Amino acid sequence: MVGGLFQNIKYNLDFWRKNMHINDNVLHSAYKSGVQKVVSCLSTCIFPDKTTYPIDETMIHNGPPHNSNFGYSYAKRMIDVQNRGYFEQHGCRFTAVIPTNVFGPHDNYNIEDGHVLPGLIHKVYLAKENGTALTVWGTGKPRRQFIYSLDLARLFLWVLREYDEVEPIILSVGEEDEVSIREAAECVVRAMDFKGELLFDTTKSDGQFKKTASNSKLKKYLPDFQFTPFERAVKETCDWFCANYAIARK
Ligand code: GFB
């Protein structure tokens, strides 16, 4: 069960319970049926809120997560604990990846409970249709690394086939590719050729200011991996959404 900042703030208990049930049911069923390998998905938002940067894979349990999504964060951290248990007790090679904020086609474009990029893309689509302004929530100052879902899928296949550690691995663009929410919104505006006004609703929460993650472990394994440039990935995603508005999850 995943969601944007605002859905997490509202339903921390559900995020905790549902993900804990998913963790145990999937991992124990995999173990019981002799599955050779499981790759679970954590997120860079589960790291400690008070931390040094850049965050790396060794820091997952070094302190409480940001209060906005403590339910999701603790449940996801337990996958790492359970993976270690299945390895030590049964020799299972169950591992986990830690993607940064994912976006792309087929995302959840629901404005209330989705993530920021699909939310902004849907909002710009409606602003163009209705001739209204685009309202970005928060100050626009928080910073995020975004990974294009097609790049993440390529990396998932590599993890499934080649990555043999039980220890998790961060799958993210580099620290240098981190952008502010304002810059991300401006990128969506360009991609959608939106000419209207950009407003910032600072009565809405900013959530975590930043969660800058290091991808040096990934780079050691795949020094030549090329991420799709953010501007192009956002453009492809916007084009997909506009062409598939009728069927998009919103
Ligand atoms: O993707 P998002 O909802 O989640 O991004 P997080 C929230 C940031 O974008 C906040 C700003 O700074 C918001 O104020 N924002 C601006 C918007 N406009 C919008 C909008 O239209 N929609 C949304 N949703 N935000 C999540 C975690 O944190 O990261 C989840 O809570 C998950 O558990 C996810 O792990 C990857 O990046 O803040």
What topology does this entry show?
Layout lengths: L4 H6 L1 H21 L4 E5 L28 H21 L2 E7 L1 E3 L12 H15 L3 E4 L5 E2 L1 E3 H14 L6 E3 L7 E2 H11 L6 E4 L14 H6 L8 H14 L7
Parallel strand pairs: 1-2, 2-7, 3-6, 4-9
Antiparallel strand pairs: 5-8
Helix pairs in contact: 2-3, 4-6, 4-8, 6-8
The chain binds guanosine-5'-diphosphate-beta-L-fucopyranose (GFB).
Description:
This protein is α/β, with parallel strands linked by helices and 250 residues long. The chain has a single domain, classed as 3-Layer(aba) Sandwich (Rossmann fold). It contains 8 helices and 9 strands. Strands 1-2-7 form a 3-stranded parallel sheet, with helices on both faces. Strand 1, helix 3 (70-90) and strand 2 form a beta-alpha-beta unit. The longest helix has 21 residues, at 12-32. The radius of gyration is 18 Å and the shape is globular. The relative contact order is 0.17. The mean pLDDT is 97. The structure holds guanosine-5'-diphosphate-beta-L-fucopyranose.
What kind of sheet is the major sheet? 3 strands, parallel
CATH class descriptor name: Alpha Beta
CATH superfamily, by name, is NAD(P)-binding Rossmann-like Domain
Mean pLDDT over all positions: 97
Q: Structural class of the helices, strands and pairings?
A: alpha/beta
Q: So how many helices?
A: 8
Succession of helices and strands: HHEHEEHEEEHEEHEHH
Oligomeric state of the chains present here = single chain
Q: For the CA atoms, what is the radius of gyration?
A: 18 Å
